[in-house]
Every structure is written in C-alpha cells, then in structure tokens.
Amino acid sequence: xxxxxxxxxxxxxxxxxxxxxxxxxxxxxxxxxxxxxxxxxxxxxxxxxxxxxxxxxxxxxxxxxxxxxxxxxxxxxxxxxxxxxxxxxxxxxxxxxxxxxxxxxxxxxxxxxxxxxxxxxxxxxxxxxxxxxxxxxxxxxxxxxxxxxxxxxxxxxxxxxxxxxxxxxxxxxxxxxxxxxxxxxxxxxxxxxxxxxxxxxxxxxxxxxxxxxxxxxxxxxxxxxxxxxxxxxxxxxxxxxxxxxxxxxxxxxxxxxxxxxxxxxxxxxxxxxxxxxxxxxxxxxxxxxxxxxxxxxxxxxxxxxxxxxxxxxxxxxxxxxxxxxxxxxxxxxxxxxxxxxxxxxxxxxxxxxxxxxxxxxxxxxxxxxxxxxxxxxxxxxxxxxxxxxxxxxxxxxxxxxxxxxxxxxxxxxxxxxxxxxxxxxxxxxxxxxxxxxxxxxxxxxxxxxxxxxxxxxxxxxxxxxxxx
Length: 468
Ligand SMILES: [Zn+2]
Known about the structure:
Helices cover about 30% and strands about 20% of the residues. The chain has about 475 residues and is α+β, with helices and mostly antiparallel strands. It starts with a helix and ends in a 38-residue tail after the last helix.
C-alpha cells in the first residue's frame, strides 16, 4: 500500500511535470520560436536601420524624411514602429540612435494604436547625447512605439466624422495635395448672427507633418466650440473660425517629420513678390497656394481676418512650456508705429491665453521679437506684407515634454485643454474693453521648475528648435 501510494505520487508528479511542460510550450515556446518583427510600413510609420543586437535587444536608427540624406540632421526626430512577436517574458531593450535632437524624452507605446501610454522615466535613459535607451517588459506581443502620440490623416477624418451635423460647423475639401489627398477646411460660426459684426480667425496646423500636438489642440478647440454651452455659443456669434487641421497631409501619410514626399518644407515656401503679395510665385507648392487663395477669398468676401495662428510643436528641453514667435518690438526699441502695433497685439494675445490656460503654463514672451521674419517666406511674412498689423499673425509652438505639467508628461487631453483655452482667449483679446496687466508673463520669466530628474547628459546647449 505504502509502495503503491509512493508510486502514485511519483506518477502524479511526473504527469504534473509533463503537463507543465506542455502548457509552458503551448504559450512560451511558441512565442520564443517566432522571430520578433519590426515594421514601419503603415500610415505615419517611420524608422531607418533596424538591427537585432541581442536576444531581446534592438538598435533603431532614425530615418531622414524620404531617406533623403541631404536633409539637415535636425530634421530627424519622428519615428513610429510596430513590433510583432515580442517576448513578453523579459524586458525588450531598444537603443535609439541617429537622432537629430539631443533632448531627453520619454516615448509612447500602444497595444492597439488607440490607447497610448508614456514609458516611465525610469525605463528611458540617455547613454549618449543623441541616443536614448528604452528598457521595458511589454505585456502583449504586438506593440506600437513612437516618439510622441501619433495623429494620422485617418485619425483626422475619423475625428471630423464625429462632428455634429448642424449649421454651426462646416467641413469642406476645396483643394487637394500633390498626391491628390483632400485637404480639409473646417468653418465654425453661428450662421444666425450677421457676418458684419464678426471677426475671422484663421488657424492652420501640421505644415510640419510629425508635429502632432496641434492636432489634439484643434480637437479641443473644435469640441469646445460645438459643445453648445452659452459661452461657446456667444463666441460663435462673434467669430468665424476657419481651420486647416492638416496642411502637409502627404508628409503625414509618408511618416515624414518636416517635409512633403518631395522633401519640401512648406513652412518656408510662402513665396511671394513683396511688391504684390496678393500673388504667390509659381514655385509655391499647391498646399501653400490652397491656403493663400482661401485666405484672400474669405477676406475679400468679408468680414476680414483679424487673427492668424500657425500651429507647430518644438523639440525643446522637457520643461519648456508652449511658446510663441511674436515679431518686432516697441517704438522705444526702434520699431515703426505699425510694427510696434503688431508686437503689442501679439503680447496681448499671449497674455489673454495665459489667463485662460494657466498663468504658469506658457513660456513668457521675449523682450523683443526682431524683424528678420519679414524678409523670409514664412506664412507670417506673407501676412505681414499683405495685412500689416491688421492681422495678428503668429506661430504657436506646443511642446512634447512635461510642458508645465511636471513631473507628468503632457498628454493629448492636456493639449486639448490648450485648444479649449484658445476660444475665450481670442474672445477677450478682441474685446478692447478688457485690459491686461502689461507683459504680465515677463515677470515670471526663468521660473525654475522643481523636482526635475534630468539624465546626467543634461542640459543640452541649444534651447529650442527654431522655426525653419
Ligand atoms: Zn514646426
């Protein structure tokens, strides 16, 4: 009996052991057998060389836009990959190289391209100035990883489909890109109020395709304007918003950072004859001509534009908050009355936005904006030559890092909050009965953000990515 019992126990142990192996292999061996795959062949996907350097260790090298090695190093920032058959039993290590910018950041990842998560700061280190090392054990075998929250052309069309079918919002596609993709123009206003009492507001985003922050910002603005609240209704009765949420669509689809599939940087291609700024020269790309023509058409139709915002995102050190490129300066600094008037309007707008977004959430304006933009071919250069100080045209730069939310890293909802704040800020900006404490934000310049844990290689020498 004793012997029989022992044998049974022994047999049972063997059976459990064998069963365990079968169960283990049904799950683990299969995963281990399949080769991990890395791909960027999907909308907005991008990566250069991919090398497997260990069992679960990889080296990713960033690509130039269109693999065009003649483009500046600093145009290498965006990357977005899909990994399949990832071993979930041990950490995956990714060495990211060939970066164009030295700033530390934490990338994002998703298991379904819908819900995105930031890596933890302790999962991302900076072994060398232009490198990042990620080490993370994923819980699912398919994962998408990106430099920042992606926002594709499909994401835009899906979002526009969610807008209410009413007379306050109109979505049109009056132009197409070089690759024949429809360009969306979104108009928001209260059609029951007479146009004569309204001002036009212009905004366009994604001239630089990978700068996705402004897409979330515009979602926040649009959601707010169509929310039906009395405040939103009042704003729609006073303004007509014309928004171009995605300018460089072909570049977005291609997974480029700054340029079209022909490596054109649309931001600096508002080519015009300063003698006659109504006309762009014939070497301006169709994407630029489409915006230019629409602005003139609507302005001629009336009411006229008073504000034009050019939305971007800047590679900056992680704690730089959203900021602006105001132009010129005061008459005391040697600027003409008209130049100083534009400068003053730009600061007034920054102050108004600070009040609605949060007084510590924006970078203070510089002491002087300078006039070099006027001799270049930015959108604001054209606006200046066309409308002088009648249109407060300015670039808004969102940022990718903690952006004022430290120790947390900025999320799409935070960016939507910035968009939501734009609406009452524009209302107050346009209301001449409201006065702001002049240059209030300058007083807070150089505010030191507390509790930072920069990697040892920090800080880099350059402050922000410049507009070009
Ligand atoms: Zn940009």
